[in-house]
Design goal:
Strand content: 15-25%
Low-confidence stretches: none
Number of strands: 15
Largest sheet: 10 strands, mixed
Number of helices: 14
Radius of gyration: 20 Å
CATH topology of the largest domain: Peroxisomal Thiolase, Chain A, domain 1
Strand order of the largest sheet: 5-4-6-8-1-9-15-14-10-11
Length: 413
């Protein structure tokens, strides 16, 4: 076992999702299957189901600062402050030059660019009306940088572009930087502002991969035989990471330890996933954690509601966990939609409560299970009571063939 100064734990969680503004509310809504997915009207595109976050945007910075910054930065600032508050870290306790901020993003700058082009159209495309805030708004490190400015953090900050695997990738980065001794504390997680971009919706639509249903709360239906695509959501989830040694010394509440992780590439296709590489990614995480398939209590699936995506992941899971009778499987996107760069970390957060209450939140909207998506112990419709849940495996896979898996464990009592 690693020494305590190399074991990395989560001590704070701050989040905003389409159905909640804090972890306890989020957990409650997931157990009830309450999504709050709604139909929105997009410029140039029309209506589509989407997950929109409703939170106090001026709780930690002024309206003027939000206007100068970005939607992603606004979400990030809120989540970062909430995570630090949840961790019990006083402002003067941690060294701000020894704190790193690592933010996972699927995309950034699309919303701002579309808005500026729309605005300048009203001035006959006169570039003198193009905002001077455009460049700092659209650089990839923007959301991480906005967080450091709000909190006065002077340690390293950057964003990690890893498509929809980015949230997990940011956690992995935080673990690695802490183990290297580059920082003493990390704020890591993912953010998405995708619902502000008609281009993202239009692209999924053109691919035949945009989810739709008469009732928007039923539009995201992973594993269902009639699933028809992704429901785009915004959101964010950031964690405070520190060494077990430091967390114990200050008497922190510890949610879990990050015990294993894996990342790899399909090297196959820009869009289509590849289950064989996904299985290799999960096995890499198991190996790094020193665990076997039977040791995993919950698999939090990436499944987005696309035909091939869900099928490939299920194939990968069956190849590793087909004989594991104690491993339960669920999906969070069916409830909150796909929050892109924030998806993996929001999905992990939604399952952390299982360590305390022993419940596995359900996958919803599966009216007829696709035989190709059959998984033993897939939790559907209602929460399931598990026994002694100690270990969660969290999958996130993304476009251009990037895969990530993170494994967390509850510390022994």
């Amino acid at each position: 076992m690693l020494p305590d100064n190399q074991r990395i734990v989560i001590t704070g969680v701050g989040l905003v999702s389409p159905n909640a503004t804090n972890l306890s509310e989020y957990r409650e809504k997931l157990l009830k299957g309450e999504s709050n997915i709604q139909r929105i009207d997009l410029r140039y595109f029309g209506q589509a189901p989407a997950g929109i976050c409703n939170f106090n945007e001026t709780k930690y910075r002024k309206k003027k600062e939000n206007k100068k910054g970005t939607r992603a930065g606004c979400i990030g600032v809120y989540c970062a402050h909430e995570a630090l508050k949840d961790s019990g870290l006083a402002d003067d306790y941690y060294q701000k030059h020894r704190t790193g901020v690592y933010i996972g993003l699927t995309e950034h700058g699309t919303v701002e660019t579309e808005n500026e082009i729309y605005n300048i159209k009203g001035y006959d495309y006169d570039v003198s009306y193009w905002t001077h805030h455009h460049n700092p708004r659209t650089v990839l490190n923007n959301p991480a940088g906005e967080i450091t400015m709000s909190l006065g953090i002077t340690g390293p900050h950057y964003s990690i572009g890893a498509a929809c695997a980015a949230g997990n990738a940011s956690l992995i980065q935080g673990v690695q930087m802490l183990r290297l001794g580059e920082v003493d504390m990390a704020i890591a997680g993912g953010i998405s502002e995708s619902t502000g971009s008609f281009g993202i919706f239009a692209s999924f639509k053109a691919q035949g991969a945009l989810g739709e249903a008469d009732d928007p709360t039923q539009a995201c239906r992973p594993f269902d035989v009639n699933r028809n695509g992704i429901v785009v959501s915004e959101g964010g989830c950031l964690y405070v990471l520190e060494t077990l040694e430091n967390a114990l010394a200050r008497g922190a509440h510890i949610y879990c330890e990050i015990v294993g992780y894996g990342m790899n590439s399909d090297a196959k296709d820009l869009v289509l996933p590849f289950g064989e590489r996904q299985a290799e990614c999960m096995q890499l995480a198991l190996n790094r954690a020193g665990l076997k398939a039977d040791d995993i209590d919950i698999i939090s699936t990436h499944a987005t509601g696309t035909k091939q995506g869900d099928t490939e992941e299920c194939k990968a899971i069956r190849s590793l966990f087909g004989s594991s009778s104690k491993t339960y499987i669920n999906n969070t996107k069916s409830i909150i939609g796909h929050a892109m760069g924030a998806a993996g970390v929001l999905e992990l957060a939604g399952n952390l409560g299982s360590f305390e209450d022993g419940l596995i939140h359900p996958t919803i909207n599966v009216e007829e299970l696709d035989p190709d998506c059959h998984l033993d112990n897939l939790v559907l419709d209602n929460p399931l009571k598990g026994e002694n849940i100690t270990t969660i495996l969290n999958n996130s896979f993304g476009m251009v063939g990037i895969n990530s898996t993170v494994i967390v464990q509850r510390l022994p009592d």
